[in-house]
Amino acid sequence: MTLYARVSTDTSPEILYQLLTEQWKLSPPNLLISVTGGAKNFYLKARIKNMFHRGLIKVAQTTGAWIITGGTHAGVMKHVGQAVRDNALSSSIHGQIVAIGVATWGIIHNKDALSCPFYLSCCSF
């Protein structure tokens, strides 16, 4: 399931953490993995791509980490999303991978469908 929250720039981190752990029932992370990089698309050879996918998923699973990215389907963030998606499609045996994309409202495609009049909107789609 994909969840989202639209929050103000002055929303406190405590409120966001409460949303993630109490409302969405995510286990608190033992580690945060922040994957950052440009949004420019690039090609990865199959061997390197597979190593990146396997390594990222293994670290997230074995440590109980949350993976945090810029939340777009471009560049290195696209590769993270593909790794998480492929893992979810291939096996649910090893547990859930938590991936959180943090994107600015201005770059969200079809954002009108996500708009709510609330200060903190928590919706799923």
Automatic annotation (TrEMBL):
What Gene Ontology cellular component terms go with this record? Answer: plasma membrane
Q: Name one GO molecular function term.
A: ligand-gated calcium channel activity
Q: Which residues form the TRPM SLOG domain?
A: 4-115
> InterPro entries per the record?
TRPM (IPR050927), TRPM_SLOG (IPR041491)
Q: What is this protein called?
A: TRPM SLOG domain-containing protein
